[in-house]
Design a protein that fits this description.
By secondary structure, the chain is an alpha/beta fold. It has twelve helices and 21 strands. The chain starts with a helix and ends in a 6-residue tail after the last strand.
């Protein structure tokens, strides 16, 4: 059945929401980016942070003769935004704002982001692009199980669906049993949430005695957290849907920076609105095409809070060869991790997504896991708690030990570290309605 689901995305008719922008030839894209980059340099000169940098480096629109000249422009970080809290990066008068969103603030003060009415129109159009590429049609109904409020995900996708003309069920995040009831009552074809919450919905359906594959959804658009190709297959198999990836972040605009087409060979970047670099996070030099690096994004058209060379901390790859779908835009791989989520274990760089990839290579494991890092003595130790399917639980210690060893070997192969593996019962690891929390680093807690 998984093979049937794998082919489901091939049955989605190729449609392009904005052909003039999405199929623009490469030279046309770069000419438009250069024009908009010069305009941006003029506009952000109203922002003290950039005005000071430009004055120090004698930079103005005349300084940008080619896209390569953007390397002369300053990098911007989240710490820079925090130091200018809350609205030091505004490039328009406060009275011109139409909406304010923000990050959750779980690691400190929330980072607020502002939009003009034109920004909101741009945002909804960008979301419409990847939703249509991934199969959304005006005759569909979409259930949005993202949070609404300061978080950008729910609203951005909501208005993108509305722009396409499809019906919306604004279910918001949480109350999973109610989510399932809504699906059975209203028959939505599309589910929109984090990938980890899609699996939570599948688990909860089984607990209610419902086969999750019998739910009416046909495909889903998932984002908000890194996820692996193995996790995509797991979602597709459990829910019998075609799953599409999309990418965005609040500081840039929210969801809508990029998204997949039915070819699913990378997420198409909306290059008429964003200029994306892929840099070595240590040297800040460009990496070769197809090599992993940190995404650094410049917002070319945003009015309220434009950002130049924003360090996303997200690790991905960029590809420029044409896509079979007809779009000419650069594509990015899925995000494989974040530079600030990276764990250094006895000198080895490890991302949680690598642990997930290893787990899902072992038959019988699930994508529900917790990584615990400690330093009881002078060396780091890693314990991975992983749920396995109920039928694999056994009272024979030798069978359980053999499974642990298989998982440990796979982690070593993929991530290059030795980990202690603990098998735990289904539903014993906390579920999340938003971004899943996969790591507990006790070294930072002083334990």
């Amino acid at each position: 059945m998984a093979a049937q689901t794998h082919e489901a995305h091939r049955q989605i008719e190729h449609r392009i929401w904005d052909p003039d922008a999405e199929t623009l030839p490469r030279d046309g894209i770069e000419a438009l980016q250069l024009e908009r980059l010069r305009e941006l340099v003029t506009r952000v000169a109203r922002v003290p942070f950039y005005r000071d940098h430009f004055a120090h480096r004698e930079i103005g629109p005349h300084s940008i003769r080619s896209l390569a000249d953007m390397r002369r422009l300053p990098l911007t970080t989240k710490d820079d935004l925090r130091l200018q809290h809350p609205f030091g990066f505004l490039a328009v008068p406060r009275k011109a704002l139409a909406r304010i969103h923000g990050s959750s603030g779980t690691t400190g003060r929330p980072t607020f982001v502002a939009y003009t009415a034109r920004d909101l129109e741009t945002w909804s159009n960008l979301c419409a692009r990847f939703l249509v590429a991934g199969g959304l049609r005006p005759e569909h109904t979409a259930q949005v199980a993202f949070g609404y409020g300061l978080f950008t995900g729910g609203f951005g996708l909501h208005y993108g669906i509305e722009r396409v003309g499809a019906a919306i069920i604004p279910a918001a995040a949480g109350n999973t049993r109610r989510q399932i009831e809504i699906m059975r009552d209203l028959d939505p074809e599309v589910l929109i949430c984090t990938p980890s919450y899609a699996l939570t919905i599948a688990d909860s359906a089984r607990e209610l005695g419902i086969d999750p594959r019998s739910l009416p959804i046909r495909f889903g658009h998932f984002g908000g957290e890194p996820w692996t190709e193995d996790m995509r297959r797991e979602i597709e198999d459990q829910l019998d849907i075609a799953a599409f990836n999309n990418y965005g972040l609040s500081e840039i605009i929210g969801p809508g920076v990029s998204g997949e087409c039915p070819e699913r060979s990378g997420m198409h970047i909306q290059e008429d609105h964003f200029l994306v670099e892929c840099l070595d996070p240590e040297t800040l030099e460009p990496v070769p095409e197809g090599e992993p690096g940190e995404l650094v994004i410049t917002t070319l058209t945003r009015e309220a809070m434009p950002l130049i060379r924003y360090r996303t901390r997200d690790i991905a790859r960029l590809y420029r060869e044409p896509c079979a779908c007809g779009r000419r835009t650069t594509r990015m791989s899925r995000v494989t991790g974040r530079t600030d989520d990276m764990l250094i274990i006895r000198g080895v760089n490890v991302f949680p997504s690598q642990i997930e990839e290893a787990l899902l290579r072992v038959e019988g494991t699930t994508p529900h896991y917790l990584i615990e890092v400690s330093r009881p003595g002078t060396l780091d130790e890693v314990h991975v708690k992983v749920e396995i399917h109920p039928e694999l639980f056994s009272d024979r210690m030798d069978r359980m030990q053999a499974l642990c060893e298989r998982i440990s070997r796979e982690i070593n192969t993929v991530a290059g570290i030795r980990a202690h593996v603990d098998l735990v019962e289904p539903r014993s690891i906390e579920r999340f309605v938003g971004k899943a929390k996969r790591v507990l680093d006790r070294r930072d807690l002083g334990e």
